[in-house]
Amino acid sequence: MERRLQAWIDDKPYHERYRFIPLAEISPNLQHAVVAAEDARFYQHHGFDWDEIQIAADEAMEGGRKRGASTITQQLVKNLLFGTSRSYLRKGAEFTLTPLAEFFLGKQRILELYLNVVEWGPGIYGADQACRAYGTTPRTIDRQQAARLAAILPAPLRRRPERMNHYSDLILERMRQMGW
User: What are phi and psi of 63, to 5 degrees?
Assistant: First the structure.
């Protein structure tokens, strides 16, 4: 809805593509690449990665670049309930809902929902449409393709090939380190 409204304001065409698919239809390559890219300790924490939060806070205090420390669960809560706007109020609500999502949904369902609602490009939502836009399917995507798609996630509306190449190499290395 938010993207559609912005397109209307900018007087640009907008076509949303979306199709929900079960986690079983999404290749482990894509699942692993997204976890490696977005939340490497996804299976170890309970909704918040306190180590990443501390690192991000330390970097901000030292005047370094600001970066997010949101987990996949936090991003899912944000995407499902709050949209992309930033505010302390939204963060507060997200903070209270994240543990509930972890408790009631569990890791596999959180990952399934996240892969199906996350934005992969203008009007492209979910792993199915992202894979199809890339010329493959969620079931058959290979490791390199999965890493390149996962590299889009931090900034899905600013797809830059040089960033995708560099970041996808880092994602592949993280996958290797994680035993994937």
Answer: 80, 15
User: Is 60's pLDDT higher than 90?
Assistant: no
**CA-based nearest residue to 120, from 111, 129, 112:** 129
Query: Residue 14 corresponds to which tokens in the numbers above?
Result: 């907008």
Secondary element (H or E) of residue 50? helix 50-61
**DSSP character for 21?**
-
**pLDDT of 2:** 58
Per-domain boundaries in the chain: 14-177
Strands (E), the chain: 17-18, 119-121, 124-125
- The helix/strand/coil state of 1 is coil
Helix, strand and coil in the chain, % to nearest 5: 60, 5, 35
Which DSSP category does 158 fall into?
S
What CA–CA distance (Å, rounded) separates 29 from 178? 13
* Domain 14-177 CATH assignment equals 3.30.450.20: no
- In single-letter form, the type of residue at position 95 comes to F
- State yes or no: pLDDT of 158 exceeds 90: no
Which pTM does this prediction carry? 0.85
User: What tens digit of pLDDT does each residue of 4-18 get?
Assistant: 555 556 666 656 677
Is the pLDDT at 55 greater than 90? The verdict is no
